[in-house]
Amino acid sequence: MDPKELGILDRNKCALIVIDIQDRFKPVIHEMKRVIDNTEKLIKACQVLRIPIVVTEQYPKGLGNTLPEIFELIPHAEAIEKTNFDCFGERKFGERIKNLGITDLILAGIESHVCILKTALTARLHDYNVHVVTDAVSSRKSHDHATAIERMKQNGCFMATTEMIIFQLLEKSDQIEFSEIREIVK
Predict the structure, then answer these.
(1) Any domain includes 1
(2) Distance, CA of 119 to CA of 153 (rounded, Å)
(3) Is 25 helix (H, G, I), strand (E, B) or coil?
(4) Domain count, the chain
(5) What's the domain range around 50?
(6) How many other CB atoms are found less than 10 A from the CB of residue 31?
(7) Residue 174: which pLDDT band, with cuts at 50, 70 and 90?
(8) Which tens digit of pLDDT belongs to each residue from 129-171?
(9) Residue 3 falls within a domain, yes or no?
């Protein structure tokens, strides 16, 4: 069986996409603390494992910028501003992803039923493997989140938790990065 069909991640062929974790969303997103905490773990693990991280911001003039607690972890990242709900609707995003030469996108952020869903479906159209980190995405309403997760599963996206993603990327406990990763997931 083809590893692509199983959703097996290769850390040399993937990127973490942090979608729209912005100021104005913080008070209204269901379980936002969980999204923030798990996104922070993913960012830290990707840094240890040297996996690219791409950040987007939906209409920052109205919704604010990426939360400081997220952005301080990746101070050199340039957030891609967008008005499209689909990240691929912004030329700059599509170009950055293409230039990375990757096959897999790991999605974290908000909202599950809007920007995460639209980006996941378009990524599938472009033949990317999509890994939705279910405990690092959410919506204002839990029902919208749950329905979006189901819709993405129906369309060939892989569902995973933060720790599933991190340990799949790490692969073995005898790797040099293991001690740093262990501290992140504690």
Answers:
(1) no
(2) 14
(3) helix
(4) 1
(5) 9-185
(6) 14
(7) confident
(8) 999 999 999 999 999 999 999 999 999 999 999 999 999 999 8
(9) no
Phi, psi (5° rounding) for residue 131?
Answer: -120, 110
Per-residue pLDDT tens over the stretch 13-60: 999 999 999 999 999 999 999 999 999 999 999 999 999 999 999 999
Is 4 within a domain? no
Residue type, 181: I
Express as a percent the part of the chain with pLDDT over 70: 99
The CATH number that applies at residue 89 is: 3.40.50.850
CA gap 172, 104 in Å, rounded: 20
Instruction: Count the Cβ atoms, other than its own, within 10 Å of residue 22.
Output: 23
What one-letter code names the amino acid at 61?
Answer: K
DSSP state of 49: T
List the helix and strand counts (H, then E) for the chain: 9, 6
Closest CA to 85 of 122, 54, 53: 122
Q: Whole-model pTM above 0.90?
A: yes
Contact 74, 39 (CB under 8 A): no
Residue spans of alpha helices (H) in the chain:
3-6, 32-48, 60-63, 68-71, 91-100, 117-125, 142-154, 162-170, 178-185
Q: Is residue 52 part of a domain?
A: yes
